[in-house]
Every structure is written in structure tokens, then in C-alpha cells.
């Protein structure tokens, strides 16, 4: 019976607590009013005890009510008032600070309120005079930690001697409960540059290193890892300033930390996260303005300005009476004088100060597969153009007798019907580059045959990143081991002056090549520095270079040290690509995935504020991989992804035109000339009308238009391979291809950024701008391809032929699979807190049909990775502008992975050119199936299909955090790759699969401290030399 009474009493007590602490009851106001008005110490203590109990049991909600009723200010006033009559009552101070600790978790303005009320020094004095009174010292330190999280407070407290007091509390290894709180307070104080300088000037950095060593030495059972991490946090904050970095080096800090990190065995944990995010309601980038999400209903340009673009739509006026083939590959444009392209002969004719490009001196023979000359690569220099562009000559490969060497090309015609080495060299002649390239890359000349075998995604070796970073740190620990030898430098054509045959030879002076500098740091290790995009000081990611003079069977380590992306699929199983000339001559002309010990991590180089978009202190990242070469004196090429050059596109288009039959309408125009003087091809592909009678011609002219484009970003070479698959399918003789041509008129721009591709850029054109951010207001002079592409679309809309589908092919560097981004008002609003009526969100769900079809047909396509949310940062992209301004409901960006797939038929495999080309062909088949959903005869089936999709949308939207077709996906949303160190002695090799780091966690245990050769420091122009 007694237990029952106690239970009832407890229930009543808890109910009373809830009623008192609720916002509507007024109980909290009564308690605070009593606290404010009482003058009796014991009554004050009793009220504070009640508040402590209420806030301890009630958690955040009750604390929120306490703060909203003015409780914080009242506590601070009581604290300051009680301190005016020393000595202060210890129990009172204990109660007040205990409450302030709880309030600090909820009241973000506590630090500001404390400063305004004069409470900072009150708490500081309590700490100063109670260093041995741990009962009172602990809550005072906790409050001081909250105070110091405010930068202004931290500076004020530093001036008042708080740093010195903290070092009196922090000391060698002990079991005092106040040590951790004091370290956390010190770390907050040291985030202030002024406090950091004060600490360095007073010699506290060596003191911290000594304290860390003592804790590390005594904490053999790893029970105080949190304290050791806090000490390291203090050291890290000190090294954020230049003076602190110097003091760290002078105190031998690198060696101390290196020794303490390697002397004890640690177990490495890997934590992988999902690649999609269930909800993103906190994303401020999502467009919330309904007016900006609605299509513009008026033409943005007068039709008189657009009339010139009739020239590119001659199929709508052709009468087909003569049934002559449609062959207009390079007809001059009829645009205005400022945009008129020069005649073809003018484009190919060298300027007066240029010498004609001749390749006649290169003799080519074809050797049957399986046979080769083992000394051929040794005797062969480089595949070069006979005459330099600006009058300088480049000697071709010669044998010992002075005769021109014979370049033996593997006979791959049967496997590569669209590749012809002779034709490729002809295409190179008219390709204009900024560096005036005089050499040709072997892989582009020989060609690439897709591998028959599958290449699995590389399994990450545990601890590889930790091992690589330690090797980097050893450069400072053992500087005598570092060679510091620049072996390749685009800025110094005479480099290297001497060569003892022990160094690799590098080259990137060919179309799409990118390597600026190579530095030999150890006998078999090289640091590589990439070029930025032309007329830009950033976008270092794409690479394509040649390596020679290697030894077989030796493990060479390559470090690309100025990458910019904060994460990469190289951390998730992607490998670099390598092409061996020796293998190609032996009958295996393949780009193959290669490399071991691959990882991608932040290094110690800081980008300048100009290179980092105004943000000072952003770091570069290192991509490191190890390669063992198989052949002596081979010539190998490395690339970020399968290269696809502009000259290769021209060759492919010429070969495709030869596939035209009497049933195929194929026309190639030059849309415009780029800043670099290169033409931008525009293709028109459809089926010829059945006859010249009115009915077939009327059917021909009424076909819906499909507008496709690709390669606006040069580094996304996979988009060109997908486009190649699309073009080959459209020009094929299969019944499905013919049916597809009879269903649509295709307008295709296969390469929107020829200049960027030619010059080895990663993202920009020669104007130094991202062309896919210029669609809202493109400039005819600076962004000619975008300006004229948009004009074509505007012309189609003005003439009542708005495209049924627009799709821009892209590549994605940080996600797997192939997927689409589209545009939807409804799905955009659903990701925000905007309140709109149902009628405001009415839209046809037809934009989902094509992705749905692709998910059913294409094994690499992932519907769950698709997103139809419109973001503010994407409002100037092709997808959004074409959707909003041109009125194309099915306006997409199709993203193809650079890595591989994690679902479907290709799960666990890296993607290759055959899979990419297959994706392009499957896109065509999906368009063919789309036809029946958009035909009038089957409109009722289409409507029922849309109802099914809307039901799916509503169901998935009601389930929080579900990975579904409506899941909003960030553009680059792979998680930060962590190698978390487990110090538990009992862990052995057991890996915890459940712990997943937060996607946006900026406190990941990075190890950015990395030493570097002086040569790299000198020549990384965007890197601040004083950064460590």
C-alpha cells in the first residue's frame, strides 16, 4: 500500500512540475518574480534549488520557458549583485552557476548578456580564488566555457588573465575532473587570434606539447582520449596563426606528434554513409519564390532578331522534290556581321604569322595484332606535327640514321569503325589551341577499344590515408631524404637541364592535356601540379599527361597536390585511367583503370583568397595513387577520365556522316565560332519524308523537336561518350532507330565548350567562366555557343515548335550511377516551409516519365538519385532556363558517374566507355517509348500513368527521410571520407559498421599538416607560402 501511495505522490509531483513549467500556466513567472523580490538568502537558495530541479528533470523545453520568461537576465543580475558584498555565499554561487550551465545550452545569447551585465569578471574571480575548491570550480569553469564561445568575450577574458588561470588548472597527467573543462575553455579562448598570439608569446605552445606527451605516456589504457584530443585542439588553434606555426616547428612539434602517433598501434575504422539525403528542409539554396518557379509566358526577344536562325531549321521549309542528299557540313552562318562565322577555307587557312600544319612526314604502317617491335617505343620519340604553329619546327621521331621513324599503328578498324588515325591527324590540323600544340597524344591517335572484362570498384585498404599522410609528414622529419627536383615545368621549357636517367619524363603539351609541373620528392615519388582553367585561377581537377622512362616492377607514387573539390569518388573505389603505348602496339589499345593505395585528402596548402573566391584559408586537396609499370621504356598516359578530344569529335562526325542512307536526314552546320577560333557543330538528324506529297511532308514538319547538348564542362568527358552512343544509335539502320527518326527531329550540339576541351580546362571556357551559369543572359562575344544555342531554342518557341525534350549531358564527380535533374514547382515547394494552396502547385507530372522509363531500361540509371528541385544556385543553368524561359516541361540535366554503379546490373563495377555509350543508346530507346505517352491516341493511358506517379509522390512524401524518387539530392553529396582512429585496446580488428559521421561535419579528424618540397612551394602560385 505504501508503494502505491508513493507512486501516486510521484505522479502528482511530476504533474505539478509540468504545470508550473508550462508556458501558459504562469507558474514560471511566479517563481521568477519571487526570486527577484525576495531579500532573504535562505528563500533565494530554496527557489534556486527548485529551479535546478525543474530544469534538470524537464530538459530543453522547460529551459526554453525559463529563458523566454527572462530567467537568464535575472540569474546574471543576482550573480553580480551577490558579488558586491564579499565574501560571496558559496552555496548561492554554486546554485547560480549550475543553473547558468543548463541555460547556456538553450540561450545562445548568454555570453552577450553576461558581458552587458558585468558577469564575466565575477565568474573569473570565483575561478581564480577557488582553484582548490573543485565543487565550486567545476560549474564556474563550465560557465566560463560558455562565455568564451563568444569571440568578444574571449578577447576580454584573455586580457583579464584567463589564459594564465587555465594553465594553472591544466597540468601533467592527473585524475582531476576539472582538467577537461579547463582544456575546452582554453580551446575556445585560443580561437581568438589575439589570445593565440598572447599564448605563443608567453611560451604556452611548448608547454602544451609537454603536457600532451605526459598524458600520452601515462594514458596507456586509452581511458582519457578525450582529454588528449582537447590538448591537440588547443595546439591546433595556436597553429592557425603564422606565429603559432613557427613556434610549433621551433618546438619540434611535428616530430613529437609524429612519434606519439606511430609509437602505439591504432585500429582504423571506416564509416561509409548513404549517398542520398532523405530531407533537406534546411537547405537555403532551394528556390522559394513561386513567381520565379513559374514559366515566363512572353517571348524575351523580338522575332526579328531571331529570324536569322531560320537558316538552322531549313528542314521545315525544304520541299524534298529532288530527293538529293542533305550534306551541308560547314556552310557559313547567315547571322549578323558580328556573329558571322568565317568561310571554311578561312578557318583552315593559317594566319600570316603561322606556318601550315603538315603531318606528311609521319609514315604510318599497320602491324597485325599480336606482333610488335620491342624496341619501337625506345626509338620512337613523340608523335609530333612536322612544323610548329608559330614558325617553330619540331623534329619528328627519327632513327639512328636520321630517317623518319615508322609509327606502327594497331589495326583496330574492325573494332573501332568510327576511328581512323589518318583522319584524326587531318582533324588536328584545324584545331586551334592557346598553347599552339604541336604534339598528338598517342591514345587519341591510336584509339581506345573498350575492355571486354569488367573492372570492379576498388576496395579501400584500411589505414591507407593515415599511412600516406605519415609519409608526407616524414618529409619534414627526415628532410635529407627529399630530392626536391623539378623534372617537368611548363613555365620553364629548359627543365630539366640535366637528366641522369633516374627520373620519369613527363609531358602534357597535346590536346586536352593538363599537367603544369612535376617534382621528384623521393626516388620513386612525384608531386604533380595541375594547370588552372585558362583565364581563371582555380578549377584544378582534370588531368591528362604522359609519363616515360619508367622501370618495370617498381612502385611509383604520384601525388596531385592542388585539387580543389572537398571530396572525390577516388575515396570510394574509383581509379585513375592509364593507357600503355606498348600494350597498344601489342594489340591492346585500352584505357584501363589502375592504381593502388588511392586516397583523396586535405593537404596543408592554402589557397589565396582570390583563388578561393574571397574565402581565405581554404585548403587544397591531394589525390595520391601508386602504379607499377609492366614494360621497360614504355610510354604511358594518365587521365582523370576517358579522354575525348575536340579533334576526336570532328573525326567521329565525319565518319558518322558516311553512315547516312537515303532514309536518314542528316545535316551538320557550324553554329558559331568560339573565342579560340574553333567551330561549334550543330547536327540535325531525323528521317526523310516518305515522298514529296503534301501529307508526308506535313507529317515531317509536325514532328516534335528533341534538343540535346553535351560537354559544356570540359572535364566531364563521360558526357561525350554518352553523346557518342546517342549519335551512333541515331545513325544506325535498326528498325527502332528508323522509328525514332520518324518520331522526332533531333537538334544536337555535341560539344558546347570546344575551347575548354582543347586546352585541358576542367570547367570553364576561354573567358574563364562556367558556361553553364550563363544561360540567363549569355553574351554573344564571350559566350557564343550558349548565346546561339539559347537563340535556337528561342526561335523554336517563337515559331510554335517548343522542344518536347531538352537534355544536357553532364558528368558527376562525387556520385555513382547515372541520374537526372529536372524541374518541378511542386517538388521544390515540398522541400521548403512555404505555404501554398493546391491550385498553386498544379502541374503535369509528365516530367517524370522519361526518368521513369530510363530506370526501367538502362541498367546504369538510378531513379532514386534523381531530383526535380530547383535551387537558386542553378537558376542560370541550361536545365532551369530552358524550363522557365522556353517552357520545356521535360528539361533535364543527365549526370553520368565518373566512378561506377552501386545498384542494378553494374553494381560494384567501375563504368567504362561501353557502358556510357550504352547509356546514350538507351536514352534514345526511352525517347521512343516516350512517344506513346505523348501521342494523342494514347493520352488516356498517359493520364493514368501520371496518376500512378502522383500517388507514389504523395506516399513517399509522407514518409520522412525515405530514399525515394522524390528524395532531394545535393549536387555533390558523397559524405566526407573518414578514417577514424579507434584507440580502444580491446578493439582488435573489429570494425563498427553502425557509426556514421554527419554529412556536413567540419570537425572530421583530418590530418592537414603536410610538408612539401621548396620547389612545390615556389611554383604553386595560388598557394600561400606561409600556410602550414
TrEMBL record:
It comes from Cyprinus carpio. The keyword Mitochondrion applies. This is Cytosolic carboxypeptidase 1. Residues 642-931 form the Peptidase M14 domain. It catalyses: (L-glutamyl)(n+1)-gamma-L-glutamyl-L-glutamyl-[protein] + H2O = (L-glutamyl)(n)-gamma-L-glutamyl-L-glutamyl-[protein] + L-glutamate; C-terminal L-alpha-aminoacyl-L-glutamyl-L-glutamyl-[tubulin] + H2O = C-terminal L-alpha-aminoacyl-L-glutamyl-[tubulin] + L-glutamate. The lineage of its organism: Eukaryota, Metazoa, Chordata, Craniata, Vertebrata. Pfam families: Pepdidase_M14_N, Peptidase_M14, TPR_CCP1_N. It is found in: Cytoplasm, Cytosol; Mitochondrion; Nucleus. Belongs to the peptidase M14 family.
Amino acid at each position: 500500500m505504501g508503494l502505491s501511495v508513493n507512486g501516486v505522490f510521484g505522479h502528482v509531483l511530476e504533474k505539478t512540475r509540468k504545470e508550473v513549467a508550462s508556458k501558459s500556466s504562469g507558474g514560471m513567472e511566479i517563481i521568477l518574480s519571487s526570486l527577484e523580490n525576495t531579500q532573504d538568502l535562505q528563500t533565494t537558495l530554496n527557489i534556486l534549488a527548485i529551479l535546478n530541479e525543474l530544469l534538470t528533470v524537464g530538459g530543453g523545453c522547460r529551459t526554453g520557458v525559463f529563458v523566454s520568461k527572462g530567467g537568464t537576465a535575472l540569474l546574471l543580475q543576482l550573480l553580480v549583485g551577490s558579488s558586491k558584498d564579499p565574501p560571496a555565499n558559496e552555496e548561492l554561487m554554486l546554485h547560480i552557476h549550475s543553473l547558468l550551465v543548463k541555460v547556456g545550452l538553450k540561450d545562445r545569447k548568454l555570453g552577450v548578456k553576461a558581458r552587458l551585465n558585468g558577469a564575466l569578471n565575477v565568474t573569473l574571480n570565483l575561478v581564480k580564488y577557488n582553484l582548490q575548491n573543485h565543487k565550486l570550480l567545476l560549474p564556474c569553469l563550465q560557465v566560463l566555457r560558455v562565455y568564451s564561445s563568444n569571440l568578444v568575450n574571449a578577447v576580454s577574458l584573455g586580457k583579464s588573465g584567463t589564459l594564465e588561470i587555465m594553465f594553472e588548472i591544466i597540468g601533467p597527467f592527473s585524475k582531476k575532473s576539472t582538467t577537461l573543462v579547463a582544456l575546452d575553455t582554453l580551446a575556445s579562448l585560443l580561437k581568438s587570434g589575439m589570445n593565440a598570439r598572447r599564448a605563443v608569446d608567453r611560451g604556452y605552445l611548448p608547454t602544451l606539447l609537454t603536457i600532451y606527451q605526459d598524458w600520452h605516456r601515462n594514458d596507456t589504457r586509452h581511458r582519457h582520449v578525450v582529454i588528449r584530443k582537447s590538448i591537440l585542439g588547443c595546439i591546433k588553434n595556436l597553429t592557425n596563426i603564422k606565429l603559432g606555426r613557427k613556434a610549433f616547428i621551433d618546438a619540434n612539434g611535428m616530430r613529437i606528434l609524429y612519434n606519439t602517433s606511430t609509437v602505439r598501434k591504432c585500429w582504423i575504422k571506416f564509416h561509409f554513409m548513404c549517398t542520398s539525403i532523405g530531407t533537406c528542409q534546411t537547405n537555403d539554396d532551394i528556390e522559394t519564390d513561386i513567381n520565379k518557379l513559374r514559366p515566363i509566358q512572353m517571348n524575351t526577344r523580338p522575332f526579328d532578331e531571331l529570324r536569322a536562325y531560320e537558316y538552322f531549321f531549313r528542314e521545315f521549309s525544304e520541299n524534298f522534290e529532288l530527293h538529293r542528299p542533305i550534306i551541308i557540313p560547314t556552310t557559313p552562318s547567315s547571322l549578323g556581321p558580328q556573329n558571322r562565322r568565317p568561310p571554311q577555307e578561312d578557318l583552315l587557312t593559317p594566319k600570316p604569322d603561322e606556318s601550315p600544319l603538315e603531318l606528311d612526314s609521319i609514315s604510318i604502317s599497320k602491324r597485325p595484332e599480336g606482333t610488335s617491335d620491342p624496341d619501337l617505343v625506345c626509338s620512337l620519340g613523340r608523335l609530333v606535327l612536322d612544323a610548329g604553329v608559330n614558325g617553330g619546327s619540331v623534329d619528328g621521331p627519327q632513327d639512328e640514321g636520321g630517317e623518319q621513324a615508322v609509327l606502327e599503328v594497331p589495326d583496330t578498324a574492325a573494332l573501332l569503325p568510327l576511328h581512323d588515325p589518318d583522319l584524326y591527324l587531318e582533324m588536328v590540323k584545324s584545331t586551334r589551341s592557346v598553347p599552339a600544340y604541336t604534339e598528338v597524344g598517342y591514345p587519341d591517335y591510336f584509339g581506345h577499344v573498350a575492355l571486354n572484362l569488367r573492372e570492379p570498384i576498388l576496395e579501400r585498404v584500411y589505414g591507407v590515408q593515415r599511412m600516406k599522410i605519415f609519409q608526407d609528414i616524414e618529409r619534414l622529419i627526415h628532410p635529407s631524404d627529399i630530392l626536391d627536383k623539378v623534372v617537368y615545368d611548363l613555365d620553364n621549357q629548359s627543365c630539366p637541364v640535366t637528366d641522369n636517367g633516374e627520373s620519369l619524363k613527363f609531358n602534357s603539351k597535346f590536346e586536352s592535356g593538363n599537367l603544369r609541373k612535376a617534382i621528384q620528392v623521393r626516388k620513386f615519388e612525384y608531386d604533380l601540379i595541375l594547370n588552372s582553367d585558362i583565364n581563371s585561377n582555380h578549377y584544378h581537377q582534370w588531368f591528362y599527361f604522359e609519363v616515360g622512362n619508367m622501370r618495370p616492377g617498381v612502385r611509383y607514387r604520384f601525388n596531385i597536390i592542388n585539387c580543389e573539390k572537398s571530396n572525390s569518388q577516388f575515396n570510394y573505389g574509383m581509379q585513375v585511367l592509364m593507357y600503355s603505348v606498348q600494350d597498344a602496339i601489342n594489340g591492346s589499345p585500352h584505357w584501363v583503370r589502375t592504381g593502388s593505395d588511392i586516397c583523396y585528402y586535405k593537404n596543408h596548402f592554402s589557397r589565396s583568397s582570390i583563388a578561393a573566391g574571397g574565402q581565405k584559408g581554404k585548403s587544397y586537396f591531394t589525390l595520391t595513387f601508386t602504379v607499377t609499370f609492366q614494360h621497360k621504356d614504355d610510354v604511358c598516359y594518365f587521365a582523370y577520365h576517358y579522354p575525348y578530344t575536340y579533334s576526336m569529335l570532328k573525326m567521329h562526325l565525319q565518319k558518322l556522316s558516311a553512315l547516312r542512307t537515303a532514309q536518314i536526314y542528316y545535316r551538320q552546320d557550324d553554329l558559331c565560332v568560339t573565342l579560340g577560333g574553333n567551330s561549334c557543330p550543330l547536327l540535325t538528324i531525323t528521317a526523310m519524308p516518305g515522298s514529296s506529297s503534301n501529307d508526308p511532308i506535313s507529317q515531317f514538319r509536325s514532328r516534335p523537336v528533341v534538343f540535346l547538348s553535351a560537354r559544356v564542362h570540359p572535364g566531364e568527358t563521360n558526357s561525350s561518350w554518352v553523346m557518342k552512343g546517342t549519335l551512333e544509335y541515331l545513325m544506325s539502320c535498326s528498325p527502332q532507330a528508323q522509328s525514332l527518326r520518324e518520331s522526332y527531329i533531333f537538334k544536337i550540339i555535341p560539344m558546347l565548350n570546344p575551347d575548354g576541351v582543347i586546352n585541358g580546362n576542367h570547367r570553364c571556357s576561354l573567358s574563364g567562366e562556367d558556361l553553364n551559369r550563363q544561360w540567363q543572359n549569355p553574351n554573344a562575344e564571350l559566350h557564343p555557343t550558349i548565346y546561339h544555342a539559347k537563340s535556337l531554342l528561342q526561335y523554336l518557341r517563337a515559331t510554335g515548335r517548343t522542344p518536347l525534350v531538352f537534355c544536357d549531358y553532364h558528368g558527376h564527380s562525387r556520385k555513382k550511377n547515372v541520374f537526372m535533374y529536372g524541374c518541378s514547382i511542386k517538388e521544390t515547394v515540398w522541400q521548403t516551409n512555404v505555404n501554398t494552396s493546391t491550385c498553386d502547385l498544379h502541374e503535369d507530372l509528365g516530367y517524370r516519365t522519361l526518368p521513369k522509363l530510363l530506370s526501367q531500361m538502362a541498367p546504369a540509371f538510378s531513379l532514386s538519385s534523381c531530383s526535380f528541385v530547383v535551387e537558386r544556385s542553378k537558376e542560370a543553368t541550361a536545365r532551369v532556363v530552358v524550363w522557365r524561359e522556353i517552357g520545356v516541361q521535360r528539361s533535364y540535366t543527365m549526370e553520368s558517374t565518373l566512378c561506377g554503379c552501386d545498384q542494378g546490373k553494374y553494381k560494384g563495377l567501375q563504368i567504362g566507355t561501353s557502358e556510357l555509350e550504352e547509356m546514350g543508346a538507351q536514352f534514345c530507346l526511352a525517347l521512343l517509348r516516350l512517344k506513346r505517352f505523348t501521342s494523342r491516341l494514347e493520352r488516356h493511358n498517359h493520364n493514368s500513368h501520371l496518376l500512378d506517379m502522383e500517388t507514389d509522390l504523395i506516399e513517399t512524401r509522407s514518409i520522412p527521410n525515405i530514399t525515394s524518387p522524390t528524395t532531394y539530392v545535393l549536387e555533390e553529396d558523397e559524405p566526407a571520407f573518414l578514417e577514424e582512429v579507434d584507440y580502444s585496446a580491446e578493439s582488435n580488428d573489429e570494425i563498427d559498421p553502425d557509426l556514421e559521421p554527419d554529412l556536413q561535419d567540419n570537425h572530421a579528424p583530418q590530418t592537414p599538416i603536410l610538408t612539401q618540397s621548396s620547389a612545390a612551394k615556389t611554383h604553386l602560385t595560388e598557394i600561400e607560402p606561409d600556410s602550414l
